[in-house]
Amino acid sequence: MTADTQIPRATAQRLPIYYYYLSSLHEAGIKRINSTEISEAIKFDAATVRRDFSYFGALGKRGFGYDVSALLDFFSKVLSQDKLNKVAVVGTGNLGQALMKYNFVHSSNIQIVMGFDVDPKKKELKIDNEKDETIPVYSIGDLKSELNKENVTIAILTVPGKSAQEVTDQLVDAGIKGILNFSPIRITVPNSVRVQNVDLTTGMQTLIYFVDNFENIKSAK
Predict the structure, then answer these.
(1) Among 34, 89, 161, 195, who pairs with 65 as Cys (CB 3.0-4.6 Å)?
(2) pLDDT tens string 28-87
(3) How many angstroms separate the Cα of 164 from the Cα of each of 87, 91, 134, 152?
(4) Which residues of the chain are modeled with pLDDT < 50?
(5) What's the pLDDT at 69?
(6) How do the domains of the chain map onto residue ranges?
């Protein structure tokens, strides 16, 4: 992959799925796999798998398939698995605290290191999590200084919609480069900042629609 290679967003979103599937194969001692087998396991069609991999050059060989260990090592580098990514949670209500307690327990390169909240009662609140760690929660007024102190560039936003944009502006000013947005609104950021929206309500409504209209959707394929 060259520096000017354009990777489609949909492909980028599938990369972690490939990585974790390859990790399970490696742990099981499987040394080689082809695109059809990958397709059957992760439910993407084989053509999509081959196209996704093609953006990164010749990762496999015709008639041989893919070397699991080599492919896993490649995607590990692509996804920066060798670098610890420090994360802050902004908004430590029920959802924020649940995320902090979970703290990406199954990932070795993601760590929530602090939280922020506007409620003064939550200032310096210590949250113990599944990794047997204690995560401090600071006042929102200390946002910039604490983020800079720990060199945090990724934030999870779990604040109410009415304050989401204002807090987002503070995060951008503090040097945040990526935001996982759980707030109910679409936030506006500069082109230099990336946002991944997680809308639980929309996701559930979509699921309910598919459940209630299963036969109609199936027949329309």
Answers:
(1) 34
(2) 999 999 889 999 999 988 899 989 988 887 676 666 788 999 999 988 988 888 888 999
(3) 18, 10, 26, 19
(4) 1-4, 219-221
(5) 92
(6) 9-78, 85-202
- What contacts 185, CB < 8 A, 6 or more positions away? 161, 164, 165
* Residue 112 identity (one-letter amino acid): I
Closest listed residue to residue 32, CA positions, set 7, 6, 67, 57 = 67
Place of tokens 């649940």: 98
Instruction: Locate 82 and state its tokens.
Output: 């060798």
**Rounded CA separation 90/133 (Å):** 18
Side-chain half-sphere of 4: how many Cα atoms within 13 Å?
0
Burial tier of 70 (Cβ tally within 10 Å: 0-12, 13-18, 19+) = middle
Task: Match domain 9-78 to its CATH number in 1.10.10.10, 3.40.50.300, 3.30.565.10, 1.50.10.20.
Answer: 1.10.10.10
Measure Cα distances from 217 to 164, 201, 212 in Å. Answer: 35, 21, 10
Q: Which fold has domain 85-202?
A: Rossmann fold (3.40.50)
**Amino acid at residue number 123:** K
Q: What share of the chain is helix, strand, coil (3-state, %, to 5)?
A: 45, 20, 35
- pTM listed for this prediction: 0.77
Which pLDDT score, from 0 to 100, does residue 2 have? 43
6, containing H or E segment: none
Closest CA to 137 of 98, 89, 99: 89
Q: Give the pLDDT of residue 4.
A: 47
